[in-house]
Amino acid sequence: MITLEKNRKQKEKEVIMDNQEEKQKHKRRIRYSGTHPRNYKEKYKELHPDQYPDTVAKVIQKGSTPAGMHISICVKEILEFLQIKPGQTGLDATLGYGGHTQEMLKCLDSKGHLYALDVDAIELEKTRKRLEKLGYGPEILTIRQMNFADIDKIAEEAGPFDFVLADLGVSSMQIDNPDRGFSYKTEGPLDLRLNPEKGVSAAERLRTITRQELQGMLMENSDEPHADVIARAVVSKIKKGTAIDTTTKLREVIEEALEFLPEHEKKEAVKKTCQRTFQALRIDVNSEFEVLYEFLEKLPNVLAKGGRAAILTFHSGEDRLVKKSFKRLLREGVYQEISTDVIRPSAEECRMNSRARSTKMRWAIKE
Ligand SMILES: C[S@@+](CC[C@H](N)C(=O)[O-])C[C@H]1O[C@@H](n2cnc3c(N)ncnc32)[C@H](O)[C@@H]1O
């Protein structure tokens, strides 16, 4: 009896060990239960569009942006305005996923050259590879990791440009990747840098910020109506020794600070304040207003005579800067014509891509 029992136990042990070995052998990709992956890493099919084009097409059709992808905005309006002709030289100041770049390259029809910049080394390499696979190699496209504040440098070697495009802000790949810390919706380090190799993260920035400074940042960068309450809550937490170094921790401080709001408006107010607070921090750690100002000042000098520039903005602070610069330079006779009003994506485009809703486009033509 004792020997039988011993044998059974030994067999059980062997089966367990076999199962474990089997599991290790078949280290599978992260699977999601059901048909709707919620987690970024679970969106395996969307993250591999080459292998799963049907899944990607379905997600786009539903009006969402597939994980790891960016849907370009106002493509038709941009191309109509830029009037790109084969043989021209152009600059895409914000490469991102390369959607606009690709469309502009099609207009060049293998003649001329396109230069493209981005500060984000992580996404830039992926885009370079994707475009190369599509047949856009260095003979027609030059990609540089560079801040568009330095357009004068790229113009020295490649300009003047017949056309320039800047599609400001962040790409969907950056927002959706929790490791980059751009979204209050997913847990991640509170980083928010477009180029994580430069400057300080948002968490680091908060560590030493004063209440007045944070309040000013929230008001100036995103017109936050609860700026005083949020600034007080954040700074007091940090002073008490609690680090606010993840997206979730910042969202929780905001939720706590807005507890006083009436129940029926709390949820929406928290959501909006989270969006605005993350935006304000992102603008700050990337010096977005400063680099945009520098870009706008240098823009006419890199454009050829009659050269065309189009800019897409995503919040009022950016649009104000573009509008002011274009108007002043028109008055000074540097530009011969500018858009009289903002151009907006169509209702259909906004329905298909919710991220297009806040987009404003302005353009200018060099004298
Ligand atoms: C909205 S996305 C561009 C998407 C792109 N037009 C497309 O069709 O895929 C904005 C991109 O600009 C980059 N960017 C933002 N500020 C920049 C700057 N100052 N210099 C260079 N690139 C910048 C971001 O890293 C991001 O990849």
Quaternary structure type:
single chain
> Span between N and C termini?
100 Å
| SSE series | HHHHEHEHEHEHHHHHHHEHEHE
What's the pLDDT, averaged over the residues? 89
Question: Could you list the spans in which at least 5 consecutive residues all have pLDDT below 50?
Answer: 15-30
Structural class: alpha/beta
- What is the global morphology? globular
Q: Provide the domain count.
A: 3
How do the strands line up in the largest sheet? 3-2-1-4-5-7-6
Task: Give the fraction of residues assigned to helices.
Answer: 40-55%
Sheet with the most strands?
7 strands, mixed
Number of helices: 16
CATH class of the largest domain: Alpha Beta
Bound molecules: S-adenosylmethionine
Strand content: 5-15%
- Architecture per CATH nomenclature, i.e. the level-2 architecture of the largest domain: 3-Layer(aba) Sandwich
Radius of gyration: 25 Å
| CATH topology category name of the largest domain | Rossmann fold
CATH superfamily of the largest domain: Vaccinia Virus protein VP39
3D architecture notes:
The model is unreliable at 15-30 (pLDDT under 50). The chain is globular and about 60 Å long. It is built from 16 helices and seven strands. Helix 6 links the parallel strand 2 (113-118) and strand 3 (141-145). Helix 7 (151-158) packs parallel to helix 14 (288-302). The chain folds into three domains: 2-61, no CATH class; 75-172 and 289-366, 3-Layer(aba) Sandwich (Rossmann fold), CATH 3.40.50; 196-285, DNA polymerase, domain 1 (Orthogonal Bundle), CATH 1.10.150. The protein has helices spanning 2-25, 44-47, 53-61, 75-82, 99-108, 121-133, 151-158, 172-176, 202-207, 211-222, 227-239, 247-257, 263-285, 288-302, 316-331, 347-352; strands at residues 89-92, 113-118, 141-145, 161-167, 303-313, 335-338, 360-366. It has a seven-stranded mixed sheet with strand order 3-2-1-4-5-7-6, with helices on both faces. The site of S-adenosylmethionine has 22 residues, from helix 5 and strand 2. It is found in: Cytoplasm.
